[in-house]
Amino acid sequence: MSDEGLHSSLQSASQADRDRERKSDGETEGERDREERGEGESSVWRPETLHEKLISINNDAMRLQKDGSYSKMINLLEEVLGHITPAEVHSDPNISAVISSLFEKLVVSYNSVAMRLLKEGQYAESLRTLKQADTITQPHNSFMADSAKKVLKAVTFNNLGCYYKHQDQPHTAYQYLKKALAIETKLKGKSQNPAGTHLNICALLSHMGRHDEARKHAYVALKMLVTEKRKILGLEETTGFRSVTLSEEQVMSGANNDGLSGPTKAQTCTANLGRGGGMKGDDSVPKLPPSSEAAETTPLTAAYFNLAVECQHLRRYSEGHRAFCRALESCEAELGREHALYGQILRSIRNIEKKETHITPYAAPMEN
Fold first, then answer.
1. Average pLDDT, integer, range 156-184
2. Where are the domains of the chain?
3. Helix or strand or coil: residue 234?
4. Alpha carbon of 180 to those of 129, 149, 248, 326: distances in Å?
5. Whole-model pTM?
């Protein structure tokens, strides 16, 4: 698809979104006519130059993004970007930079709305919205910086993987997640979510019964997250994920030993984590709570938890016990003891200790 084709696609999407919004808001023909003549609220977007206008629109989009109003941001950006021409974009480097930023915000909005639609059960709309994000991040889109296209292409593929896993199409999901990981590997640490991609692949492979591979992806994600936090605290001299050199003992020695509690930059599709399947009827392997609280699970907690789950599937109980203990410490630091996951992890620890009596019991603080 050429830039002109992208233009047409955005204009069609913008018109469809406006029509749906007008229908729901009960807009009259007169109101629509006034808007098309430039009267009403749209008249406030009339700075003297194109660059000033785009800066104003970018500021509006940032406010909507801050408020979480992604649907409104999509309507705004589709309307604006659907009328920008290549000649206007490439006439001034400043204009090109702002336009690229607006396209980035549009792709982020598409992904955010698509995941919300997926959660609401609006599957066709979710897929349509993700495909729009995929179209914008194609190499032919000269309006958008190449580096941004690659980063957001990986995000979109990751979410398409989540979509197809939700639709019980694991092999299609796996292909998208592998594509996302391939892009992120080439970006060498500049990607948005490499640890999250490994965690999503871990969950999918576990669902497919491929627990040894799933464990490896959980461990890679864990190394990334622990290494990143060590760097933030000044405990590593290098930057970028290629420099990960932590041994398994260092990773499993406990995040909190180095003060590694607290949120990380990476985010992940936690609703898909910890839901891997083993043998039918096997209830001994835990899963994340099927409640809204699962979405609050932080990446580090999820990584330790998923590693522990896969170790249980593989009957590596000592390793699984250690991972559960680290997950419990991370959960306490990041989510608190009142979180549903804290109690579940603690029960998993005790279940292993009952079965494997040679394992030294974990001394949980203030255990009831």
1. 96
2. 1-23+41-140, 193-368
3. coil
4. 18, 12, 26, 28
5. 0.74
